[in-house]
Batch of 4 targets.
Target 1
Amino acid sequence: MKNYKKVTSLLLASALLVTSMTACGSSKEEGADQAKGDTFMIGGIGPITGDTAAYGSAVKNGIQLAVDEINEAGGIAGKQISYKFEDDENNPEKSVNAYNSLKDWGMQILIGTTTSKPCTAVVEKTHGDNMFHLTPSATAVESIQYDNAFRMCFSDPNQGTSSATYIGEHQLATKVAVIYDSSDPYSSGIYANFTTEAKNRGIEIVAAEAFTADNKTDFTVQLQKAKDSGAEMVFLPVYYQEASLILTQADKMGYKPQFFGCDGLDGILDVKNFDVSLAEGVMLLTPFTANAEDEKTQAFVKAYTEKFDIAPIQFAADAYDCVYAVKEAVEKAGVTTDMSVSDMCDKLKTAMTEITMDGLTGSGISWSADGEPSKEAKAVVIENGEYKLM
């Protein structure tokens, strides 16, 4: 009898354990399904560690601010947004891993990736899955080469052409040297189109000096050649880390030309241990400046600064605009949270060519079927440690 009771107790305990485990598993699965069915699952990818962390952090924060605002106002078509961001360290392989992780989480729409090489790797995956893909800041043409992919920022060719046009139209210089990264599609793409348009604008490229990812700390040779060539201006289609070194080394050489860059220079004022006075007078093309006086920009800057304790850069503004573009496209297309990723994408890629939005980075922004935005670039100059419209 004693043994019978013992066996009965063991069987009862086992049954309770199995029941408990089954209930927990069921609850978890239902919770995940409910989240997917009741919310729009938006993922983001970018570098929040490493040399380009300022870009990824800004994108992450810009998305978060927009998501919070939209959710508080009632969501997209009455549904809330669930948002998750993954670090890729500006590494294509890690970016693909981040994408796979977000897919496992239940991502339906991707806002990312932040930089060009990782985005070019990930767009192969989003295309294969037919997932809607909107990058805030990847500028390489290949980054949105498929019909499921769009961008908020200007492409490399656009930035190169626009920079040469601006310099020529405003007669900023006739002799220009270029220092660029031949191993990076962002930098080399801008350089190629800048050179082409410069010929049409009466601008002479007196020196074109390349470096690579393996050799991007000492720019004295490139700067000396620019100086010897008589360049009045040095065009820098590079990222802010390299630009800060170039400006520091130029100062040590006593070389003081005008410097002109693109959106990659945005963030230079926040480089650790960089003497920001060396950036005085540096010009760059960007679709956003935190010092703009319009009501929309000032409200964004105030909310962003209060939430993240840092002023927003262009990458944050582009990312913020991305979320609102998704909202408009979703509502235009009548997308619902219970649709498959592929069905969502098919509707969104049509809706994106039909919407027009007024954002932080432009008024009347629209998109063509190739994913490229139509908006006007702004030129800013750094004065007293701040960006000011030119």
Target 2
Amino acid sequence: MNEIKLLNDTLELIGDDGTEKAYDYLLSNLDHIDNRSSQVYNFLYCLAATSGKQGEALDWLEEAIVEKGLWYRPEVYEDEDLDSIREDDRFKEYSTISLARYHDALKTVETVFTWREVKGNNLIIVLHGNQQNNEISKSHWSEIDSPENQVEYLQSHEIDSYQLYRWEDDGDGPTQLKQAIHSMDLNKYSLKVLAGFSAGCNTILRAIKAGDVECDKIILQSPWIPCIQNELDELMSIILKKNIEILMICGLNDEVSLSQCLEFDKKSKEIGMNCKTVLIEGLGHEYPDQFKEIVSEFL
């Protein structure tokens, strides 16, 4: 079990009766992941705090901030899930330490693009999702890498928490993508592919709409694409005009992305756009087991 699946399964257990069941499930499965990321700790202290276990919540926060040296962006501490511990002196101490580290990180963070040289005939540039990084992308996309397909990764400079990053809906992600592409010799590749997971998909479509980037194909995995709101017709027109082929993969249990995916798919069929949509039974907001096969066939 990887971290993404564990957290998604945990979220599915939050129901009308509260969060205690989800908290217990997460606790019982912590040994199934190698490392506890800042996101895992965020789940732990938030679920504990909303399950009437304020002491445990503060202990998890202490472990994350004091023992592990982690930190979070300010918005994390505004979460109403933390209301039950917000006035505790320990919470104030740990959040103050965390925010100081966040502001220090802002001074040095930069976009990370892995490309260094031409190594294949086809180029695939992968954008991570929110609360992810290049290493998480590599854990899913490295199996696509081959002498023919060169996979490279783009990591945002918009920070989320310790070693995790995000693409804000209205952030400068398209500019980051444009600058990365312009830093290389794109013309040496026969096939140019832009690929993203979740919010990374939104950044790609925003860049396409702005005319900042060119590509032959786009792969949208679990696409979180709020950019289609009020702009879908214009975006589709641009994609159709540029003759870009699109592969969209989404789980039928994906409460984050499914509705947007279906809206995009419906519109693409109406206008005759080259869009292949693969819907996976029983899959949430995550990569499917048959990911390599689906992508390789599209490429």
Target 3
Amino acid sequence: MGADDGYRFERISPTPERMREHALLLRTAFPHAAHFTEAYLAWEYAANPDGIVLGYDAYRDDRLCAHYATQPMTARLFGRDVRGLLSFNTATHPEHQGRGLFTALAQRTFRDAAREGYEFVIGVANANSTPGFTRKLGFQLVSPLHVLVGIGAARMPASLDTAFERTWSHASRTWRTANPRTRYYDGAGALTCATDTPLIKAQLTCASWPDAARHSSAFGLAHPLTVWMGLAPGVRWRGLAVPLPNRLRPSPLNLIFLDLTGRARTLPAEHVRFDAIDFDAY
């Protein structure tokens, strides 16, 4: 059976009714992801100052069966400030898996995105979803994200030679740190937040965020260990840190990239700056 057989495809509209459907499907597909509430999706899908969600839903008999969403963003790509998309929420109801719905939704999303002037899609995929992005949709596997844990903090040179770096305006910074599921702390030259692991905080940036909606002091002694994940040329650790072994990670996190301009551009991993704040890790 092909993806088009018996399914109706609709572009996502972030109305309260549709977001109730999205929240239910996401929690069905990911039972432990309690943060998928209507309020959280309203923040993700409708409040972003860079634009509302772009993606598609698949219905059968007026029941939502699959969902794929991307989030508008801006980035400096090969020396130019351009519009792009962050690939983030995707879910298929267990009764409708294996029918090519994810690929069908993504292809429709990228077709519309290219027509509307978006130049790229970037995302972080786990081990299970990476082959679908690379083999079926043509994404480049840029690199697994680096993960360091230790005492101290990650730091970067003031001047970086980057082929890709997400850019944040005052409005987008304020929106990003208004995430209803997380409280952020801006202090000691970095934006941080708690993790699900006691004693460990996550470092989301390698610089202070003066526009953070929840500007506060740093954690201090309650969270003596710090985890940082991302890609960055010239990153250095101030203190003592070690790479987190793969066996201790829930899944490898792979940075993936798709050029929507038809020029088949790829990203050199050694010239990419990508922090946890740049995707929906926390």
Target 4
Amino acid sequence: MTALAQLGRFGVFAAQVLWRMATPPWEISEAARHTWTVTVRCFLPVIAVVFPFGMVMALQGLQIFNLFGAQRLLSSLVSVAVFRELSPVLASVLVAAQGGSAFAAELGAMRIREEIDATVVMGIDAIRVHVVPRVIATLIAAPILNLVGSLSGICGGFVVAVYVKGEPAGIYWANLWELTAPSDIIGGAFKATIFGLLIGLIACYQGYYTTGGAAGVGRAVNATVVVGITTFIVVNYFLTSALFGAIG
């Protein structure tokens, strides 16, 4: 199948999923179960990744601010970078690597075992039952994990600024919102939501249309991670320009 045909089939698949997400009946219990699973799987990895990035931001930023005597603005730099970019992107990368790959593998295994075909034969909407709960899971889990990552990144910057470099803790917290606005938090959460939706759609598409047996499942998982991460990082530029370009 050509790339253009693949893109067209993905567009049709995405439209079918979004329509079923907007119309009842909803598989609420399944969506909640998958959301919980993705959130728990990614919770500690998100902290483990974003926390050191906050530390690095503080370490490098402080060297620059020392040149101008503007150390008090360090926490503002960390908060803007974490809320706008680092946390949404890194949290979504881990959602794609953990949740997206798992969903692609599950649906791919169901496809090669003909479980999806059996669902259709029984007159059950396979997309509504198997796909929509998983897409909803990544859609919800990504902004939750983004919030976790944002808090851990700011705390990572605090650890370096206060306990490593000896900056006053009060100044760090007092100037946290100097350059940061509520729109930064809202914009970061919105970006993470869009990324979560893209990850869910791409992962479920790859799994739902898996062919080629066990090797095909492996290819679907690999494609989910590579295509998913590449897609939302490219989309991130346009979202950042739209949300923050006028004020950034």
